[in-house]
Amino acid sequence: MVTIIATIILPPSPTVLFRGVEVNLDRCSPRTRRTIETALRQGTEKPNPLADLEALEERTTAQAVSQLAATMLAQNAPFEQVEDALCELRTHMDEHFLQRKLVRLYER
Questions:
Q1: Which of 29, 66, 89, 103 has the most beta carbons within 10 angstroms of its beta carbon?
Q2: What residue spans define the domains of the chain?
Q3: In terms of C-beta density within 10 A (0-12 exposed, 13-18 middle, 19 or more buried), how is residue 74 classed?
Q4: Residue 99 burial by CB count (10 A; 0-12/13-18/19+): exposed, middle or buried?
Q5: 42-76 pLDDT, tens digit each
Q6: CB of 19 within 8 A of CB of 50?
């Protein structure tokens, strides 16, 4: 009996960190890829295909945090419970907007 062991070597995928998001450039459209590469080369992060999503994220998160905190404090919730709820909300919002950014970057 002969045992054959094969090793497959795949080239690393070209991933870059763009505006806090790890992006696989191979999955982007040519236009989005050029935009990201240009922004990274220029160092100014212009143009930014995520600008409108980042602005929406800031507004939405600020509004949700203030509304949740105000509601919980009005109900005399313990500060620890408020803090835990705000942390969970922030985690949820971060994940939600990360997914939206990836959808935008990969144009799906």
A1: 89
A2: 15-106
A3: exposed
A4: exposed
A5: 876 577 889 899 999 999 999 999 999 999 999 99
A6: yes
